């Protein structure tokens, strides 16, 4: 029973994020106070559900949940699992009237960075944004605008007309492009794996989907046989990781090695896996202190420091070949999220401000809230490192809810990470008969024999 409730909680959190992501994209195009409030509350509720699902070690006494409640929840999760499968089956098909494989600028720019390397250029200095977008028939709506130049006086976010006007000016060579991010904003592993795909002209989104399937396979391989059918349903029923990966996301390049590192953190090679994750996207860096805490708890400070050094070494080895020939470009690219004057954007607290629910505060105020939340999460994780060792994989992202830029992409993979933590917990054995008696039904479980 505890296992069923925890798995269902993770899946329901994923469903909540799924609908939050859909509403988020609608509100971005058509601002709405009610929609913004719904998104912010939904993301916050999902974070709370994931924390609740991962508290403890899994073998604590359980107060119990009614059979009816479990049956209703598992019926919802099972239906949502069909939605997850539908997303997977719909991969080859065009989705929506404005569908494009370049859902965001990271996918397009990283692909162009890989193409630049193949042509003998420097990815952090030689990418031409306008040629890159022209080849892919993209416009400024798929870019990250910056608060300077023609956008210096824009209060919240440039309108479509303002984006189009600035794009027309700069694409024709009128003035320097200081309004649109044009260089890769992530470390080398965000685009280096794309080289063979770009060389043969394949859709790089298929690589990201394969990474998601591999990460799900890692989770299932770690799950006990008796839990595997229910974890499978939970992974599919979470929906958000599948839907938004299919929709277009390069985040799986950091997520796959992160899942491996966290799920098998007792192994020495977990340090190598985390180094690869950190070399793919800065978001992985937020998980570093929580992984380090668990290394200390399990292996002691000296081994934790050694593993941290291995991770740092892997990060350096991956990035050094590209950074050595273009140190300034690499530094400016990797520090883009911090150094460049970006507009407020997100699905967290700031979303209420950009849509008029709350007043817009200075960027420093959101940074202060983020730092306070980070300190609170770190203290909580340290105090509970033995009693709730799996909490860190969710607490790592909680501070970003309060950030000036709290993009939805920061949150949608959390159900995958939470399930990777859940399969490590000391959950009681779960037989098909016990599951049916509790009210959970899944076609993946062996039917009752007469």
Textual characterization of the structure:
The chain is an all-alpha fold. 59% of the residues lie in helices and 1% in strands. The protein has 21 helices and two strands. The chain has helices at 2-29, 33-54, 67-89, 105-118, 129-135, 160-171, 195-200, 204-222, 228-237, 240-246, 252-263, 270-278, 288-299, 301-324, 327-334, 336-339, 349-354, 363-383, 392-395, 414-422, 432-438; strands spanning 345-346, 405-406. Strands 1-2 form a two-stranded parallel ribbon. Helix 1 (2-29) packs parallel to helix 9.
Feature tags:
450 residues; mainly alpha; two-stranded parallel ribbon; 2 strands; 1% strand
The structural class is mainly alpha
Poorly predicted regions: none
Q: Please summarize the sheet with the most strands.
A: 2 strands, parallel
Q: Which whole number gives the mean pLDDT?
A: 90
Compact description:
The protein is mainly α.
Per-chain topology:
Elements: H1 2-29, H2 33-54, H3 67-89, H4 105-118, H5 129-135, H6 160-171, H7 195-200, H8 204-222, H9 228-237, H10 240-246, H11 252-263, H12 270-278, H13 288-299, H14 301-324, H15 327-334, H16 336-339, E1 345-346, H17 349-354, H18 363-383, H19 392-395, E2 405-406, H20 414-422, H21 432-438
Parallel strand pairs: 1-2
Helix pairs in contact: 1-2, 1-3, 1-9, 1-10, 1-20, 2-20, 3-9, 8-9, 8-10, 8-11, 11-12, 11-20, 12-14, 13-14
């Amino acid at each position: 029973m505890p296992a069923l409730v925890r798995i269902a909680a993770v899946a329901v959190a994923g469903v909540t994020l799924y609908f939050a992501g859909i509403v988020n994209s609608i509100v971005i195009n058509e601002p709405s106070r009610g929609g913004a409030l719904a998104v912010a509350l939904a993301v916050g509720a999902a974070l709370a559900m994931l924390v609740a699902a991962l508290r403890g070690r899994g073998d604590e006494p359980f107060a119990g949940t009614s059979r009816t409640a479990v049956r209703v929840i598992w019926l919802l999760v099972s239906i949502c699992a069909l939605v997850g499968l539908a997303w997977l089956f719909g991969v080859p098909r065009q989705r929506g009237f404005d569908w494009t494989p370049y859902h965001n600028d990271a996918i397009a720019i990283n692909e162009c960075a890989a193409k630049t390397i193949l042509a003998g250029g420097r990815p952090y200095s030689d990418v031409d944004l306008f040629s890159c977008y022209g080849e892919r028939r993209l416009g400024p709506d798929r870019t990250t605008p910056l608060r300077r130049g023609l956008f210096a006086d824009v209060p919240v976010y440039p309108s479509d007309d303002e984006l189009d006007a600035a794009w027309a000016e700069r694409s024709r060579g009128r003035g320097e492009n200081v309004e649109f991010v044009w260089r890769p904003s992530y470390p080398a592993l965000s685009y280096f794996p794309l080289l063979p795909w770009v060389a043969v002209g394949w859709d790089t989104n298929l690589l990201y989907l394969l990474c998601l399937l591999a990460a799900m396979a890692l989770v299932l391989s770690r799950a006990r046989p008796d839990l595997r059918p229910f974890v499978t349903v939970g992974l599919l029923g979470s929906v958000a990781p599948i839907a938004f990966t299919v929709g277009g996301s390069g985040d799986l390049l950091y997520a796959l090695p992160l899942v491996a590192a966290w799920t098998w953190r007792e192994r020495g090679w977990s340090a190598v896996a985390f180094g690869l994750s950190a070399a793919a996207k800065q978001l992985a860096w937020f998980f570093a202190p929580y992984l380090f805490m668990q290394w200390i708890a399990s292996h002691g400070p000296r081994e934790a420091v050694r593993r941290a050094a291995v991770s740092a070494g892997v990060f350096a080895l991956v990035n050094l070949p590209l950074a050595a020939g273009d140190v300034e470009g690499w530094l400016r690219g990797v520090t883009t999220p911090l150094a460049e004057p970006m507009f407020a954007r997100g699905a967290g607290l700031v979303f209420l401000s950009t849509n008029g629910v709350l007043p817009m505060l200075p960027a420093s105020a959101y940074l202060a809230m983020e730092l306070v939340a980070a300190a609170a999460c770190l203290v909580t994780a340290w105090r509970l490192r033995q009693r709730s060792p799996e909490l860190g994989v969710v607490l790592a992202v909680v501070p970003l809810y309060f950030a000036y830029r709290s993009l939805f992409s920061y949150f949608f993979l959390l159900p995958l990470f939470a399930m990777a933590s859940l399969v490590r917990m000391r959950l009681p054995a779960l037989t098909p008969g016990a599951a049916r008696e509790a009210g959970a039904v899944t076609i993946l479980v062996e039917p009752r024999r007469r």
